[in-house]
Structures are given as structure tokens and as C-alpha cells.
């Protein structure tokens, strides 16, 4: 991490990867007369100075203290100070060491500074209480990060950040020009879920709408006559797509109400990245050649709402963090977090592969085995049939990628004690995405194990991850005092 963090691009990647954002100005201050962006840092011996100077800035530390430093350690500290991007202060053992390092470091601390608290206990509550005091500085010892992990700085910063009550429905008002970003985001989430349910209703009912029949020049009965499994195959593709749309709706609804509404800056970024991928997939028609009117109309309606949801960054922090709990519980939740991130990453890769197949070969071998035919035979039945299937297949891959990005980043950045909305959002998205896929494959007897193995694996990983994380994520947060 020190090697990556020593480069500007690498430092930004680490900070973004851990979901770290700029600390509020209220937590800025100084230590030994040296200005710092946040009065939170680490104290290390000279042997760890170089690694700390390079690794700590992207983790959210505001200062590095090297202590104790003797004249014999001066060269080591000078090398560590070169090219630093974080204030470096030294607690020197003798005047000789101080004189040798004065041109190279930002300042010198003393062991009797009443404003500096050295933290050996990883308690976030204790550290945050110090930061809430004007001028209070917390310097963690290396053992704190070994015990609590690299996210400790961010957790302390969030706990020390002043927050206000979250807005409620009656605060929204009736004038759309004054609607907050979280309300627009919620409308997009509900719209996506509604569109997914509508797509499912069409698939379970008429299957083909008028524009489908016009494009193909065939009725449902003629499709069935061309291949007895083809209608069921179309239904399986579209039900799976509909479930993914509902899953995206659940993710966006959770991000809107639990994240953006409460001022979490990372929630907007998750929403933005996922939505950008999802909306761009509308251009798949340039390859497939089939423009679906309802898909296009849904995009035209929802995209302006999406823009309204992301055009402004969240305002004042409005979260209410739960108190610390048992450390073993947090560690178990980290295992669950890893499982969800791995699952989301797998879904993204799967979505990319499905999009690629949909835009090129269209069918995989198990599809053709289920249909009992070949691509050439289907093209002979109707030259527009394969592009028609390609539209559904590629669109599903794009939607899966959009959902996967939201799952990965929500799991990576939203994992905090008491954030029950994260648990329920991921659980709802998993149910909406996985269950229709399993049910529809069973209903049409498309049960090839290799074809469904990723689904079974995703269900097992997601279920295990959520079970491990539930006590941590669903821990009760304290009620905010009224007034």
C-alpha cells in the first residue's frame, strides 16, 4: 500500500477504493503549530516512517508523527520526509536530532502537549470525543490499525462529524423545482422497479407486444410453430431481465433513502456510476438493430430524473451512527462484506460476458441445446429472429452490470454498524434478481447445471455474506435526541 500510495494516482485510487472522502473543515486544526486538514493521525517509530508517510494519506490520516527520534535516526527520517504529501512532525530525543531534521520536517512535538492524545485502544467513540473538543488531536499507535483495520481513520472522522436530522417526506414539498436530489433518486428507483414488474407482466401474458410482432412479422403461434421451445426461451430471457430491473430499483431506492437523503457522499457516486452504465446500454440497438419503444420511453422518462438526482453533491451530513459493538461481530461482518464484493464482481464479469455474447454470437451452447436447433436454422425461420433475441440478451447483460456496480460499491463503501438499510437493500436486490431466474429456468425445464451454476454460486455467496453481516449491519442506532 505504501508503494501505491506514494504515487498521486495510486493514492487517489486507494482513497476512492476505501470510500474515503475529505474530512469536514471543523476537524481541521494544527499540531505543534503545523496546520492539518484533520486532527487525526498516526505515531510511528523511525523504522516505519517511510511506509507511514506514503500509506496514511489515502487512508484518511491528517498527520504522521515519528517518535522517538534520536540523532542516529535523522537520516532515516530525512529519507521518509522526501516527497511527502502529508504533514510530518517529529518528537526528538535531543537538540542534536532536532537541529538535524529542522530543514526537512514540518514541526516538532513534545510529550507533554495537553492537546495530543495517543490512542492505543481502537475505540472509535473515544477518539471521536477527543476530536470534538477544539484543538484536540488523536495520534493512533500502529497497533490500533492492526486491530481495527485501515478504515479506522474514516470511522473516527465520520463519528466526529457534526450531523443534522435527516429530511422526511413532508420536507419534500409540491414544487418539482425544489425537490431534493434524494427524492429524484427515489423516483428513479421506483420507476425501475415498476418497469421491471411491467416487463414481467407482459412476459407472463402476451409475451409479444404489437411492435414485437411488427418487427418480426410473426405472431406468437408462428414463433411456436417455428420452434416449440422458442417462446419459453424468450420468456426466460425477459423474466430474468425483469428481475434484474426490479433489483436495480431496490438498489436505487435504498441508495436514495438510506444514502443520499442522509448526506453520504459515496451514495451519490454509487448511484451515478451504476446509472451511467445502465442508461448507456440503450445504445445497444446500434448493434442489434432493434429499437424497443417501451425501453426507449422508459429511458426518456427516467433519465432526466437521474440527472436531477446526481447533478448536486449531498448537502450537510445527516447520518446517525450506531455505537460500537463487539469486535468479533465486526470481523465476521467483514467476511460477509468480502463475499458480497466478490459476488458483485462476478455479476459484473457475467454481465459483460452476456452483453458480449448478445452483441456477437447471441446464443451459448446450452441455449442451442435447449432449443434443439442452430443459429443458422433460426435465421432461416426469420432473419430478424436472432437480432430480436440479441436485443434481450445484450440488454440483460447491461442491466446486470449496472446492478453489479451498485452491489460492489454499496458493499465496499456502505458497511457500517447499524446501517440496516444496506442489509435490506442488498437482500431485496438479491431476492429480486436470483429468485425469478431460478423459478423461470425450472418452469421451462432449462435446468442445465453448468448454465445455472453461477446463479447457485451467487445465491450461496450472497446468503452467507448477509447472514454473517446481519448482526453488525442491523445493530440498533441510538435515537437522535429531539430538539
UniProtKB/TrEMBL annotation:
Residue ranges of the TM segments: 182-211, 239-258, 270-287, 293-310, 338-364, 394-415, 422-444, 450-473
UniProt entry keywords in alphabetical sequence: Membrane, Transmembrane, Transmembrane helix
Protein name per its UniProtKB record: Uncharacterized protein
Taxonomic lineage of the native organism: Bacteria, Bacillati, Actinomycetota, Actinomycetes, Kitasatosporales
